[in-house]
Design goal:
One of its GO terms (molecular function) is pentosyltransferase activity. It is found in: Golgi apparatus membrane. It comes from Crotalaria pallida. InterPro entries: Glyco_transf_61_cat, Glycosyltransferase_61. Its main location: Golgi. The protein is an alpha/beta fold. It is about 30% helix and about 15% strand. It contains twelve helices and 13 strands. A hairpin with a 2-residue loop joins strand 6 and strand 7. Helix 5 packs across helix 7 (about 260-280) and helix 7 (about 260-280) crosses helix 9. The chain is elongated, with a radius of gyration of 27 Å. The two termini are about 20 Å apart. About 40% of the residues are buried. It binds 2-acetamido-2-deoxy-beta-D-glucopyranose (NAG) (5 copies). One 2-acetamido-2-deoxy-beta-D-glucopyranose binds near residues 6 and 366.
Amino acid sequence: MMNTKARLEICRIPQNQKPPLIKHNQSLWFYVLVLITFVTTLFILLHTRFPLQTPPSWHWQSSIFQTYGLNPNMVNKLRDSVTFFPLKDLRYSNAALHGHTWFMSSLYDTHQDGEVQYQQFPSKSSQGRVLCLKGHDNHDGSWNYYALAWPEALPYNATFMKGLTFVSYNHYDYGNLFHGLTSMIPFVAWHKMNNCSIMPSRWVLYHWGELRFNMGLWLGSLMEATFDGPLNIERFYDEENGPVCFEEDVVMRHNEGGMSRQRRMEVFDLMRCKARMYCNAEINDRGVFPVIGMTLLLRTGARSFKNETVVADMFLKECAKVQGCRFMVAHSNNLTFCEQVKLMSSTDILISPHGAQLTNMFLMERNSSVMEFFPKGWLKLAGVGQYVYRSIASWAGMKHDEGSWRDPIGDHCPYSEDDRRCMSIYKGGRIGHNDVGN
Ligand SMILES: *[C@@H]1O[C@H](CO)[C@@H](O)[C@H](O)[C@H]1NC(C)=O
Ligand SMILES: *[C@@H]1O[C@H](CO)[C@@H](O)[C@H](O)[C@H]1NC(C)=O
Ligand SMILES: *[C@@H]1O[C@H](CO)[C@@H](O)[C@H](O)[C@H]1NC(C)=O
Ligand SMILES: *[C@@H]1O[C@H](CO)[C@@H](O)[C@H](O)[C@H]1NC(C)=O
Ligand SMILES: *[C@@H]1O[C@H](CO)[C@@H](O)[C@H](O)[C@H]1NC(C)=O
């Protein structure tokens, strides 16, 4: 049951924070590197000309002097040495999501136990270098490129984009609520790690290294709410020919992977809170008496209930048996983002067929319950995909245990029930209502 304190939850700034965005003296790194290059070259030169002699000191002084004056020759050499690699590395197509993945495969993520995995530029591990992209192809990710460069020696004709850029890798798509949301989790986690202090100036969305221009309305609204403003999704319109380099940049390619359950719950807490503020759903006055909200969230087409009226009547009766229970029925397809947020804010028990609309569950108060309905055949044949909403429930602190109900009756499949070929028949199945109430 709901307590008012939880209802009045505000978007707290997290305690026990880790250190903020690492600020580096980029120019110092740069000077050090140029210096090392100079010294090495000089050393080799001296060895050739005066074998094993102590170099005259004025040589050293003059070289240091020149370095601090940023020898244009050397800068040009550094610019020339910026090397672009394909964003999607086909050598790793059979391990696309593992380790360094096939996306920017030469670079490794920063990862501390239980925390989000991310790459940040410029950073210590990039030796102060920033990320540059030549990446506007939207058909083949191996035609898009990335490179690291020192800000003082950006590649020729580069456009320098100020502010913070979020670069996202999504293995599925930005339209589906579940797949979209999981690819956003690491950005929210990183944001929280930095005390929500820096807002992204732009987003660069990739799928398999291919540039994408949109995310779904629901996901876009959620991110707008979380990051306090409209999203600027980069299209690289004016930069078709030259590379683009980013002042500050964070790359995510592992979704929620590596994060502890605690961290995941914190991310969902933040998104829930921000979404409610954005939609003015925060002040949800349930009155003096405790009210239990029971919501039947319906979908159309595949995995819809065959007879919605009968199912609704059944739950209405169940609800009527409990004091303070308020029953609501809604179709997910005709609710705006904010209508979904508001509905979930007043829901404690969510009843819905397996499907993307269930992603909304994290917008309920923590510890709320989920009942998920599957058509016939799904238990044996649908594979791990059927557990995704159980995962969200766990990450967002909802109760899904014993919350699955599977229809024993379904379309006829000519093979044995365990045969994989049946899945294509069951996949689009609808859900009956016998014993739904039990
Ligand atoms: C985040 O907040 C904590 C606790 O208030 C503070 O110690 C830390 O310095 C803050 N970090 C940033 C990036 O502001
Ligand atoms: C930079 O752009 C100019 C004009 O588009 C072009 O002529 C030149 O070759 C480019 N330089 C490099 C190094 O790509
Ligand atoms: C749903 O079931 C009720 C009661 O059995 C029946 O009256 C109604 O016609 C059914 N509706 C549909 C759309 O099948
Ligand atoms: C919502 O969608 C369902 C199914 O598409 C439809 O039957 C219902 O009339 C719609 N409700 C409203 C209020 O538009
Ligand atoms: C959720 O339930 C757990 C365990 O029953 C409890 O410790 C926690 O305080 C609850 N959280 C909220 C927000 O009610």
